[in-house]
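Protein: Apical endosomal glycoprotein
Species: Dissostichus eleginoides
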Amino acid sequence: MFLWRTPALVLLLTLQIVNCFVADPEVKCDFVCDSEGCSDEQDCGYSGPAFACDFEEAGMCGWTDESLKAYSWERRQRGGGELPVSGPSSDYTTGTATGWFMGVSAVTTESLSPAVLISPKMKQSSQTCRLRLRYFLWDSGHSGLGSIPLWASILHQDSQDAVVWRPEATSVHGWREATIFLGRIPTSFQIRLHSQRSEGLRGDVAVDQLEFLDCALPSPLQECPPELQCLRGSCVERQQLCDGSDDCGDGTDEKNCEGYRICDFEDGECDWDLRSFSSLLWVRTNQENISLTDPLQGPGRDHSNNSVKGHFLYVTVPEGGLKRDWAAFQSPRLEPTNSSHPCKMVMYTHQFGPRSGGLTVLVAGRQITPVWERGGALGDVWVKAEVDIVTNSTFQILIMAAIRDFAYGGIAVDSIVLSPECRNSTGNSSLEGFPKPPKNPDCAKAEDEAKCGDFSYTEGSSGWTDSSIGSQGWVLYENAASEEENLYVAEAPGQQLTEAQTRTPLLGPSGPACSLSFDFALTGISDQIGELSVRVIDSLLGMRPKLWEFSGKTGAEEGAWEHVDVPVGFRKDRFQLAFEARALKLDAFSKIKVTNVSFVSCNANYFPHSKTGLSCNFEDGLCGWYQDNSDDFDWALLNGMDHTIGIGTSLTVDMWSPALRGAFGRLVSFTHLQGPSDYCLSFFYKLYGPNTGVLNVKLAAHGNEWHEAHCPVPHQLTNFRLMFEAVRSGFDGRVAIDDVTFLEGPCTMPRKCSFEGQQCGYSSSGPGHWLYRRGLSATGSGPKTDHTLETELGFYMMANTGANILPASRTTVLTSPVRQGNAKTVCVSFWYHMGGKNPGSLKLYMKPVEGERVSIFSDNLDQGDVWRHGNGNITSDLEDWQLEFEAVGAGGDNTHIAVDDISLSDYPCENQGSKCTLERGMCSWSNTQNVKVDKLDWERTSREAESHYLTPPEDHSLGTERGHFLFLSSSNRTAANENAQLLSPHLPPTKGTCLKFWVYKQQSSDSQLKVWRLSEGALNQLLGVSDHGGPWKRFDINITSAEEYQIVFEGIKGIKGVVALDDIEYTVGVNCAKEVTDSLTRPKHDDAGGIAASVIVTLLLIGTIIAFLFFYLRTRQRDQAGTAPASSSLDRAGFSNESYDRELTNDRVEVPSVQNHPMAAGFNNVSISARENEV
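Structure follows.
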């Protein structure tokens, strides 16, 4: 009997165990963690004890799309690659391309059905419940956002839908923060996010990082006075009794309110009189009567019931237009009061949209006296107000609204409560005059400056207006006798648990030197008094990030003041400044105060004098530059990493910073006056990291080293400003600039020129022309892609060498700017492209400022539709010089010669066929910039220079921390499995070429390394390294190929560890057994210059032989230190190094098997003395 019952018993026990972990439906999604791990609060529109949703999980916290048509919500990522044409550049939560958010699909035709995203059902919420979210609104297609592209509503249990949030429909390419005030909802509900547009691109409306704050009903307390205790066991404050709000969550605090007159306007106007002297009238209405189809009309819901059916008093611009800009209603006549028994009035106001000009409460007795006011708009929220009235005559309470003539918005009043001391009177009172309506403060004109918040003016402090909606607010303290005045934080009647906020009137625009100067004090006995911050509210961009914040205390005594100057900077749109504060505890001993507030150097046309102008090394600030406050993030001064001395200051943007959001950070110069002169902007920069982003002006050089850049600025007909822009298209790296100079005159030759965005000062001369162009314009002859970006969008310089443009033997020359000479040997490196049958020849010369030019490089072969690498050495012996790229026509048809990526290095060129130790650069290896091929880059660095990423402890070449290597590091800032490809130059077909290299890969690293042979667009894997762990390890690979090819090192990023490369070597035509496998060729030397030199030598006097011999020996020593075979002085006139041609011709001769890399196509070591001419 026991045996057959066992399975049933096991099943019963299993069910009982499972039931222990199943959340009680009554407590699920009630904003309280009732079970271990907060499992009862999962997928409730939020998840876990943080009550937040970041959409990183596929379940979307229970949110679902219930759109009826094609326009809908979708969970999505930005993805890798360049900045998207629409939608956010990253999610908000992680700030990277791998983070998830909710965005809308594209819409091309107007739909009557909006996209709707709906939450799961939640239980009731408290009076303080609010939802903080980040939202994105961008009109990337320039088709218009529409009047209401995004809004939120509450779907009640009875299927009524009440609008609770309507953000300003302004287009901003960045995430913004908003708070949705949900308030008290006594039954289950859902939240819906709506979007409606007639046209728009994918992702241009998006939301992310939802956080539910203070939504749980108050928890029971052990100790609570009986009159303040709720039926649920929780406790309320005394001022929350009989105030028209259910603060207990069970209605207890609104019972036993005998003598109070509470009017929720559900059954009429009570005894409030809506008649007015003004033609603009208050009306009793509800949202159903105003509109259920236009979300912009009305407050969306009443206060008493939080529903569309609840009634309230409302005033807005009437259908016939605005004739009077104020409206008032009044109470019945009331008996006089005194200070010990004041008449207390509580009311709830909703001041939404630009039509809301402000609200004032006046006491009309023998005179009319304002006793309370609240200016402007406060958002989509019902705000509690308390007014104490003391007067010795019969009076009426007047509530007056100011309405502005704008597109939407209005003012509503609901739930007015009068205390028992507000007794009706049978007496008469007569009004002596009616006051002016409340004025909307604005500091646009000079006469308003005295009341704009600057304490240095007599009435300046009165310009600050308390805009708090919570339990703490700002109060202005004034002592006429001591002339002391300050703003301090005190208790306020608001219900929300938000910061106290006080704002200036509308200010600005402001200039770049503008700052807010003030003294502040956070004093008291406790170690932590609270927080104080400064914020800008931009008229276009809305609430901006905090400019400054302080947390803790300044001292124990009240006089413990500290001073601060907060940069406000250039603001092109009107704005308000706000002090925000939150005291942990308000009592007689704890104070938060602000005084001596002033605005310094804020005139929009004021630019401070900078001794160095726009030239700046950033050791003493930004000089003649300032941060653009309309962008997404700021540049930061970083100590310990500069170009000049290595330990100084540079200006950086850390793309890896988890606090960074948005796509753009701009640094703008002070205005420079127009003039006839040309200028040159030069600077040093770093683009470092596997996924860095972009620095505009567009630059290509990469790595953990400083690169020099030059930007010609032609003369301007109007005043102008310059701008550095960091584009956050990547999330794992650093952008830095240093040693900026701005000088009159042309730029010198830059060290690196990719031709992206500029010609770097290169100019064309001769019968033909070098054209500045890109692949998109290559409809006829010309490369279809550039070398830098490997795309049709990339730029290069090209000469059309067809017979109809450049006849045979005719030349066109591309000349660089002048470069200052020095004693060092300089390596000139570039990439070139020759296309078409008989394209002519490309020659590179070094032209001294005084003297004849010297040949460095030449090639005359059509070598296929590929970019090839060329280089050569120059020693100028302090003579200034230029580069000349000369294209010579050969009578071909539809032919061309192009150059790209010209660079100079302060050391001799390395032999391309020998080992590349990476100590002097990347030799002829390069990262591909083709985003269709990879997303990351191999980085050249050393352990000593690296402070952020994990690297090998030392390199292989030197075995020290100073030695260099290439590495690909793992980090959580970029997605796993993204790759980086390192390419060799094009190599000739081979029966055996040996590739040798060293790899470092930790045992714990899950990154991978693959080696490929790339030929004719196809990849053939040669090696895969995935499980190698430990120190540096050598790999040898024999490569065979019947076609021309490239070697590709592909790193694949994991989630931990590092993979690194060093000492890369390939021996063309020699296999790993050191056997010669290929017979390679080189062109004949061009001996014309050598013959001429020989004739001259035979005619020289015997006395010159010694000097010539000395010069010859010195030249040979230099050549032996370089990379080409040693050459005599006779060889300098047009000597071409070995080059590879797929079609062998009779004028080629065999060369020894161990040689320079054939694809160099003719590089010479060139050394000239000052004024030495070509012979």
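Remarks: Residues 1-23, 1082-1175 have pLDDT under 50 and may be disordered.
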